[in-house]
Amino acid sequence: MLEKQGVAVQRNFELGGNVPHNSLISNQLDVYPEYTGTAYTSILKHKPITDPQAVYDQTKDEYAKNFDLLVSPQLGFANDFAILVRGEVARKNNLKTISDAVPIAREWQAGFGQDFMSREDGYRGFVKAYGFQFSRQPREMDLSLTYRALQSGELDIIAGNSTDGLIPVLDLFQLNDDRHYFPPYQAVYIARNDAVEALSDAFAKLENAISTDDMRKLNYEVDGNKRSPKEVAEKWLSEKFP
After folding, report:
1. Residues 135 and 109 in one domain
2. pTM (2 decimals)?
3. DSSP secondary structure string for all residues of 102-167
4. Which domain holds residue 88?
């Protein structure tokens, strides 16, 4: 979008952890995408809370006060923990929410990635919050393997990422977090204020422009169909803003 305005763009990839934030502070970057829950807990060092709007508002306010950085309007999608079951199971049992699954999950085989099993907002708190009583110990396995294991029936419930492109492709169903256990991870951009003038038009157009379902499809084009992120983004932009 910036390049269509005639702005030269240099892209930097694979910047993990707090590197993008520190690079903004040191004027090495102008803008990067972030999730509100990550900014709220990892950068601002707050305990997780579950209200998406409260997390966004407080993050935006504290970023301005503490770092002189702008938090953009929300893009519309969130990359939350996604509690997934097979679509056929959800349809057969009329499952919509995580609470709906609790009564029939006793004999299920759960499987989770190491991150979910070890995090503060992961397995232990999740099971306690919803009252799950699995008769078998959950299998701990690589997150990327849990999707196929769920589809094949080897597992019955997993915790994935809500923007993963395999969710619709494998006919998996995300149960609604009706008790609001998980912190929100709404997508935003973080920008230096001296770059905002160039970014303001793009930020305005992108507000609530990308749904979580849209992002799943875009991710699958890259991960499943092996297209380049640049190609996928250009096609989406041409269709969304012809």
Report:
1. yes
2. 0.81
3. GGG-TT--EEE-HHHHHSTTSHHHHHHHHT---SSPPEE--HHHHHHHHHHTS-SEEEEETT-THH
4. 81-175
